[in-house]
Every structure is written in C-alpha cells, then in structure tokens.
Design a protein that fits this description.
Pdz3 Domain, 7-stranded antiparallel β-sheet, 12 helices
Amino acid sequence: MLNKIRPVFLFLATFVLASTASAPTHASSGPSGFADLAEKLLPAVVNISTTQTINSKDELFMQDFPDLQVPPGSPFEDFFQEFMNKKGKRGEGNKETKRKATSLGSGFVVDPSGYIVTNNHVIQDADEITVILQDDTNLVASVVGHDKKTDLALLKVTPKKSLVSVSWGDSDKIRVGDWIMAIGNPFGLGGTVTTGIISARARDINSGPYDDYLQTDAPINRGNSGGPMFDMDGKVIGVNTAIFSPSGGSIGIGFAVPSSMAKSVIDQLKAHGHTRRGWLGVRIQLVTPEIAESLGMSGAPRGALVSGVTPGGPAAQAKIEPGDVIVGFDGKDVNEMRRLPRIVAETDVDRTVPITVFRKGKELSLQVKVGELESNDEAQKDEEKEAKISETHNAEKVDEIGAHAAPISDALRKQFDIKKEVKGLVVVNVSANGIAAEQGIMAGDVISEASQQEVATVAALNEMIQKAKKDNKPLLLLVDRKNELRFVAISFAKKAKKDKE
C-alpha cells in the first residue's frame, strides 16, 4: 500500500531557487555574483503573517502527535481523519472550541504607497493580515482584491513613508536556461535570497483554468508563497506559488505565475477590486489527429474546435460557427485548445480583435468584440444547462470524464441520427475541460462498450470507471459515431493533490 503514496502539488510556498551546478567548460559562465542585485531588491520583499480562527477540535489528534506526517492521498489519510474526529468528540464531549492559527507567506511591494502582491492562498480566510518589512516594521494590511483562478491577491498597507518597490518585467521574453533570483520567507526565517534558472515554460499543473506556469529548478518551502521571481535586471517576471513534492520539501521542481498574467490580474484588482476577464461565448474541445484529418487540416493538429456557440454572445455576433477551429486570436497563434481561454481572458473587455478560424478547408479572418466573463452568471447558466439536459433526456452526469450521458431513446436517435441497431449510452453534453473532450468524444457519440462489456446505464458506466480507477488502469471505451467505431482509452492516473497553506 505504501508504494501508492504519490507526490503532491503544494500551494504552501513560493520557491527559493537553488544554485545550479558549475557550467561545462564549453558553455558561457553565469553571473559573477548576485550581491548587488539582492541588496537592491531585499527591501521591497515583505513577510506576511496571517491569523485565522479555527475549530481546535479538528486539531486534537495532530497536537498529540506533532511529529506525525500523513501523506495526502495515502491509504492512511481517511483512517487518521476518522480517528481524529472520534478523538475530538470523546475528549471534548463534542464541544467545539476555537483558537487562533497563524501562517506565514511572502509578498512584494509594487507601489511605494503600499500596494503589495502575494498569493491568494496565503491570505485566504484570514481574519488578520500583518505585513512585516525588512526593518521589522509591522503594518496591518487589508485585501484590495483576490483571484482564486490565478491564485493572486493584492493587499494595501498605510506606511508612514514611501516604501521601496519593484516593477514588473516581461515573462514572455524569459527563456529556458535564463538565470533568475527569488526572495522569500521560508519557514518564517525572514528575507532569504536564492538563485536558479528557468527549467520550462507554459506548465499546466491542473490548478486552474489559466495555468501557464514558469518552472524552475529552485526549491520552494513553507512560507515562500507569494514572493517574487526576478530576472537579472531586477524586474519581477513571476510570483512563486507551488512545488511538486512527495514529502512537503523541495525536490527542485517549482512553479511561478508569469508576470504577463500576474500584472494584468493585479492591475484589474487595483482598479476594480475584482478581475474583468474577456469572454468569447464558445464551447471548445481538443483537436485530435482524427478530427484534424476529418476537417482537412494539414500538418499537426492545432487550435480549438468550436463545439457550441452561446446565442447572442460575442462569437455568435462575429459569425463563428460550430465546427470552426480557432487557430488565431488577437494576433496570437492558438496552437492548442487550453491556450485560447487564457488569451481571451487576458483581453480587455469591449475590445474588438481579429480572430482566425479554419472552416471547410480554408482560414477565415473575422472580427469579434470581446465580452465580459461574469463568473457567477456563467456558473448559474452551466447549472441550468445541466438541469435542462437531465430533465429533457433523462441524462446523468459522468463526473469522472466530464460528460452527460443517457440511455438511447427514440428522441435521441432522431436528434443525433442514431440507427436502430446501435446500442449503448448517448453522450448528450461534453464539458470543454473534461477528459471526454480531451479524447475527442462529442455530443451524439454512443458509448457501446466499456472494458469490452456492453454498457446500457450510466450507473454501470460509473461502476466500471471506479473499478478502473481502483485498479489504476485505463478504461477502454468503444465509441460509435455515425456507424464508425473507434476505441478510446481513458486514463485515470491519479492527479497530484493541491494542498494550500
């Protein structure tokens, strides 16, 4: 059982970057030193201390065993949680008591008047936030705004004099292998300087819809979250946010929100107190090699396939149609599906931009006026849509693959032109970000078999999914699309958990 304990993404630290090994003799040498840069930047980096009132009953177990660490996702996690709850009830007579819990993080000043950037998870649910400057000055901070989707937050303090601040750099210009410097507050030790290089760009760690992280070889530890990543000109090119770790300590794989995204979000938080994201009004899915071939696209699959258009939305007004493949937006190439939501979200609301679509073997240039994404409205619309789907087709949600399915009925046969001899479950809706969409499954497809067994109910399909997950094996589906059969292997490899500080 222990060999199933897996690495986890930890959103509890920003990363302090470890020095790289000496370069080979044929490579150019790195900087001769970082002291001048560190001296200049340290005063702009702050420590952030938060306090939160929590139910102490839930922590009795861990207080009794302070050195015990239960790896998240391990076979023992549920057991210890159950034991902890029982002990709390027995020891406290089921009476809840409250206490103050303190956590530490990092941040940096972006305006001398007292605006400070950090991670959302550093200050989330905090009752009190204190910013500690390099000279140990303590300032009470208020939250100007925060954004869960990018894990960013903007704080405001009222200093007696202007603060030392830093400015944003251009993360789009940073290259893999470039030197960077990080400053933060690991384990509450205070201002700590480390260096490293950019290991990779555009990493998606499944933490949110706009993942586009810079990866570094630097260690991130508890208390570093929200601190800045600097280029060698002293400009902020990232906000250190997470690590990939099996134990809670660094193994040299850390992630930062790039400044190209962070600056836009922070500017909006400062101006409006919330984000104003661009909205296109389309449902999209992955362009698989099979789909690309069927559409007549040459070369490698690219773009985002439009599977649906919101009536009256920006895309509909721009004459974008289902079946179009969006390959360019505002002068930027859309090489893959997940890039499009980020580009659209970062576009100013009400701005008219060019959009390139591949339609019937040709590329067309259209103009679209970007709308504003209202998170609450969209969430409500999604819920209403799911309820309508369930009511109309007696469809049930298949959460694990991001789809709705229903047994074949006469109405569904007519709607999707399914022949009488075809049996199985009809896919009536596919989530744009689900596994089904990633595998090219579309509304109207019929799942005839799962694990080489006929499947007639959603309950049976869900049971097979759970068995495949338990056995840690892919689930093989036989999918019928207009009398053309193909096998689709759905992998349920366990994703790393994201534990927040």
